[in-house]
């Protein structure tokens, strides 16, 4: 693998695969780093490892199914042992921004159903303060302009300002998530108080979920050319 970022993602994913034990119920994340984990998990399953996976998106489900990883849903399997997912950013308190791949709602539901959430990432996602990556906020498609104003106000009330844009897909149409919602990308820059912003966003009726994952990740496996570092508790 020549691309150093992809090599780092693969390295982090490989460390996470070592956490998987026979019989585990796994949450399967979304994105390019999570896809490395799913690919490596598929290799273990082909060698006889028995697990069951709950995907966080249609595309992860398709990847895992193609690799013959046994799959389930939260309807059938509402409690999981471990979720492995990527992130768009993480800070020293293991707080995350997620949703760059538009899967944040299902990612958060699956992570919340898991005893542990381990994040796999390359070093580029590490920040001192969250907010360099525009915060994705998943919103109901009813009344998006009104919800957008509330999101802007929530930002302002917690010291954030910047453009709040409706995400479009590759064809220039409003992007629709797997759950049928839209996404507002909030280019707030540094978020001075992520916990306060999360609370404000939670209180907006049109907000289905936001990409601040606070108190959810139990460990972060971060890789770069020098190797792998574990932040948090992998046990
Ligand atoms: C998808 C996500 C992804 O985990 C996040 O965007 C990171 O993706 P990648 O591993 O491709 O950088 O939150 O909604």
List keywords for this structure.
binds ribulose-5-phosphate; six-stranded mixed beta sheet; globular; alpha/beta; 2 domains; 6 helices; four-stranded antiparallel beta sheet; single chain; Alpha-Beta Plaits; Rossmann fold; 235 residues
Taken as a percent bin, the fraction of beta residues is 15-25%
- Radius of gyration computed on alpha carbons: 17 Å
The domain count comes to 2
Order of helices and strands: HEHEHEEEHEEHEEHEEEE
Tally of DSSP β-strands = 13
Order of the strands making up the biggest sheet: 2-1-3-6-12-13
CATH level-two architecture of the largest domain: 3-Layer(aba) Sandwich
Shape: globular
The main β sheet shows up as: 6 strands, mixed
Describe the structure.
It contains six helices and 13 strands. The protein has 235 residues and is of the alpha/beta class. It folds into two domains: 134 residues, 3-Layer(aba) Sandwich (Rossmann fold), CATH 3.40.50; 75 residues, Alpha-Beta Plaits (2-Layer Sandwich). The strands form three sheets. It has a six-stranded mixed β-sheet with strand order 2-1-3-6-12-13. A four-stranded antiparallel β-sheet has the order 8-9-7-10. The chain has a three-stranded antiparallel β-sheet with strand order 4-5-11, with helices on one face. A hairpin with a 2-residue loop joins strand 12 and strand 13. 47% of the residues are buried. The mean pLDDT is 97.
């Amino acid at each position: 693998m020549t691309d150093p970022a992809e090599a780092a993602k693969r390295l982090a994913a490989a460390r996470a695969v070592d956490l998987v034990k026979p019989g585990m119920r796994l949450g399967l994340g979304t994105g390019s780093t999570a896809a490395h984990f799913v690919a490596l998990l598929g290799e273990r399953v082909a060698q006889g490892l028995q697990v069951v996976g709950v995907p966080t998106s249609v595309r992860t489900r398709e990847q895992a199914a193609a690799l013959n990883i046994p799959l389930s849903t939260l309807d059938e399997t509402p409690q999981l042992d471990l979720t492995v997912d990527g992130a768009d950013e993480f800070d020293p308190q293991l707080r995350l921004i997620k949703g760059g791949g538009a899967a944040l709602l299902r990612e958060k539901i699956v992570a919340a159903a898991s005893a542990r959430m381990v994040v796999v990432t390359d070093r580029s996602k590490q920040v001192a303060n969250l907010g360099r990556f525009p915060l994705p906020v998943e919103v109901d498609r009813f009344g998006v302009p009104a919800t957008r104003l509330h999101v802007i106000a929530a930002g302002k009330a917690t010291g954030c300002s910047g453009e709040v844009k409706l995400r479009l897909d590759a064809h220039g149409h409003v992007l629709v998530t797997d759950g049928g919602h839209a996404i507002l990308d909030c280019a707030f820059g540094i978020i001075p108080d992520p916990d306060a912003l999360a609370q404000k966003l939670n209180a907006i009726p049109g907000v289905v979920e936001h990409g601040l994952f606070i108190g959810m990740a139990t460990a972060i496996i971060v890789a770069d050319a020098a190797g792998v570092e574990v932040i948090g508790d992998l046990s």
